[in-house]
Amino acid sequence: MSQTYHTKVNNTYAFDLPKQAIEALDAVKENDNHYHILSNNKPYIAEILKDDFHAKQYQIKVNGNVYDIAIEDHLDLLIKDLGFEIGASKQVNDIKAPMPGLILDIAVKVGQEVAENDTLLILEAMKMENVITSPRSGIIKSVSIKQGDAVDKNRLLIEFEA
């Protein structure tokens, strides 16, 4: 079975590129993000402007024109056909205590908007202060604890609006 890459350019044009065609491309790396490419006896100057390796998305400038490119291989397509998406994370709607401990500080209140990685609270466990951060952006629906509360593992601490 020959490996093929499904490539979408500017979210408009789709191309299926066999692995052999990519391997046959005459590309010379000039420095970190700059390449000199020869294809069908035509020279191209390419520069990678942005890259997200995990999402397989790139922004590339070729001869002065900028292109947004998304690449999928046969496994990505199979996963998508099954109804899953690579990199799609589960929507977290509640925060539970990861371990038993004491609530030292609560940095949020009901109705507050938070961003991913914002501090939600500080939980003391085994004489260590553990900063619990937000796994996603959202609005706080409820705060089920107060400062000074002793909590057991898996106790509901904070809920997000869905």
From TrEMBL:
InterPro entries: Biotin_BS (IPR001882), Biotin_Carboxyl_Carrier/Decarb (IPR050709), Biotin_lipoyl (IPR000089), Single_hybrid_motif (IPR011053). Keywords: Biotin. The keyword Cell inner membrane does not apply. The keyword Manganese does not apply. It comes from the Bacteria. Residues 83-161 form the Lipoyl-binding domain. Pfam families: Biotin_lipoyl. PROSITE patterns: BIOTIN, BIOTINYL_LIPOYL. This is Acetyl-CoA carboxylase biotin carboxyl carrier protein subunit.
